[in-house]
């Protein structure tokens, strides 16, 4: 499967909002959205094309994919499963994306970004219920404990990430232990508790065409 290897900041500029793809840099004045808050391409500074209904729906889907770092096939599969479950399809979709292991590792503060979280997982630094898991798309179940393995807890990037965690802003469906190197999913996240700034209904409308 291919992966995006271009500049991450271009993705934020294309979507017109910060996607927080580069961790702490997105919070500084070095962020591209602070310096060039318009879509890539010289024309876009003065000539902003009018967006159709389909274009608006497509951009919302692309933004959501890029925030969570998933590809079209994965995203479409997640949507299909969400539509087959009881409840609101859009909320079901976001719940499944939030429960991805890479997202849980990021939300717990073990990594500065989701891409850094995926790297930790693929490089065998993460355990789920004491067992090593190397698949970023692994769906974490309620009650499962996600932890950084003992040997990796002294790595500078991990230590810096853990020390900078703001427990007060931790998602309400997650719980972090006292040491800060493990946590667990305490409940299925509700829509009001998911801080992702997307309109999932537009995605539902797009796939319903």
Task: Give the gist of this structure.
The protein has 209 residues and is of the alpha+beta class. The protein contains nine helices and five strands, in the order αααααααβββαββα. It has helices spanning 8-15, 32-35, 53-68, 72-84, 89-98, 101-107, 114-122, 156-163, 200-207; strands at 126-128, 131-132, 145-148, 174-176, 182-185.
What's the CATH topology name of the largest domain? Ribosomal Protein S4 Delta 41, Chain A, domain 1
What is the CATH superfamily label of the largest domain? Ribosomal protein S4/S9, N-terminal domain
Class by alpha and beta content: alpha+beta
What is the rounded distance between the termini? 27 Å
Question: What proportion of the residues form beta strands (DSSP E)?
Answer: 5-15%
Strand order of the largest sheet: 2-1-3-5-4
Which oligomeric state applies? single chain
Spell the H/E element sequence. Answer: HHHHHHHEEEHEEH
Q: Compute the number of structural domains.
A: 2
Number of helices: 9
Major pleated sheet: 5 strands, antiparallel
Which consecutive residue ranges, at least 5 long each, have pLDDT under 50? none
The average pLDDT is: 83
CATH class of the largest domain equals Mainly Alpha
- Percentage of residues assigned to helices: 25-40%
Overall CATH architecture of the largest domain: Orthogonal Bundle
User: Got a strand count?
Assistant: 5
Please state the overall shape, judged from the principal axes of the Cα atoms.
globular
Q: Roughly how many Å is the radius of gyration?
A: 18 Å
């Amino acid at each position: 499967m291919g992966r995006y290897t271009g500049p991450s900041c271009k993705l934020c500029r294309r979507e017109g909002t910060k996607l927080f793809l580069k961790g702490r840099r997105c919070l500084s004045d070095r962020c591209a959205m602070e310096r060039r808050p318009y879509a890539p391409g010289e024309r876009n500074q003065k000539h902003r094309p009018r967006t159709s209904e389909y274009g608006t729906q497509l951009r919302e889907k692309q933004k959501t994919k890029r925030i969570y770092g998933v590809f079209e096939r994965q995203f479409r599969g997640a949507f299909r499963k969400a539509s087959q479950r009881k409840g609101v399809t859009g909320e079901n979709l976001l719940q499944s994306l939030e429960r991805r292991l890479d997202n849980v590792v990021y939300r717990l503060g073990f990594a500065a970004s989701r891409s850094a979280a995926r790297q930790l997982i693929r490089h065998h630094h993460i355990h789920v219920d004491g067992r090593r898991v190397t698949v970023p798309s692994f769906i974490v179940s309620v009650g499962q404990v996600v932890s950084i393995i003992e040997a990796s807890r002294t790595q500078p990037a991990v230590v810096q990430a853990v020390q900078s965690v703001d427990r007060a802003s931790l998602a309400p469906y997650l719980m972090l232990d006292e040491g800060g190197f493990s946590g667990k999913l305490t409940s299925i996240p509700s829509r009001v508790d998911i801080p992702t700034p997307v309109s999932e209904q537009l995605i539902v409308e797009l796939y319903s065409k």
